[in-house]
Amino acid sequence: MKDEKLAVLIDADNVPYAYVKEMLDEIAKYGNPTIKRIYADWTKPTVAGWKGVLLENAITPIQQYSYTVGKNSSDSALIIDAMDLLYSEKVNGFCIVSSDSDFTRLATRLREAGMFVIGIGEKKTPQPFITACDKFIYIEILKKEKERGSVEKLNKQSKPKVESSSSVSKVDKELVNLIKDSIDEISDDSGWAFLGVLGNFIIKKKTDFDPRNYGFPKLYPLIKSIGEFEIEEKVTGENNIRHIYLRNK
Question: 3-state SS string over the chain?
Fold first, then answer.
């Protein structure tokens, strides 16, 4: 997946500029962002904050004038560019950075064409756009990680520890049932499911699922914290790699 060429298309009107570095670092986990474009009416003072980070992160600004008051002018330009890139066959996937549900149909169309589509937006993003993506990541998580990094740095410099909550969602019955149902669906005859397969399967059912939403860096510690699953670790012969299996109690 990391060798995939990705087009990163940013709607400057609907996402904050403060965490652009964290966004790009996150995108790099899924592929190489070979094309990075950001759309806005750059004559407006509301997007002035973006201008300082564009050169630092090699993002190409695309000017789109607002012809109608109150309408986001970036939508049409971003959509047209996305379709041009799709037919140019220069990329294998797309990352649409926006909290706007207007891009729901675009994400759906790109996936219909066999593209891998990542969405990045705020927690307020409407569910249809979230569901239309293969994977959706909340900006608040990237914000929390940046804050946690600052806290850890501060803790190293001074003895008193500063605590920081890194969750944007709560572990509730709905999440527990999602995990339990997913284990049942992919488990073998004895009820055991491989953790690596489980994580990918849950994302297919709930595209915005991410252990970091609940304050955990990985799926395994999230599973252990719930305490409603049997856990078995098997060590393979190759470099003593551990394979983790789960079963509903």
Answer: CCCCEEEEEEEHHHCCCCCHHHHHHHHCCCCEEEEEEEEECCCCHHHHHHHHHHCCCCCEEEECCCCCCCCCCHHHHHHHHHHHHHHHCCCCEEEEECCCHHHHHHHHHHHHCCCEEEEEECCCCCHHHHHHCCEEEEHHHHHHHHHHHHHHHHHHHCCCCCCCCCCCCCCCHHHHHHHHHHHHHHCCCCCCEEHHHHHHHHHHHCCCCCHHHHCCCCHHHHHHHHCCEEEEEEECCCCCCEEEEEEEC
pTM across the whole model: 0.85
| pLDDT score at 151 | 45
Q: Give pLDDT tens digits for 32-88.
A: 999 999 999 898 888 888 988 998 999 999 998 776 555 555 688 999 999 999 999
Rounded to whole angstroms, the Cα distance separating 68 from 43 reads 14
Q: What digits encode the pLDDT tens for the residues 117-140? A: 999 999 999 999 999 999 999 999
Structure tokens at 202: 């849950």
Residue type, 16: P
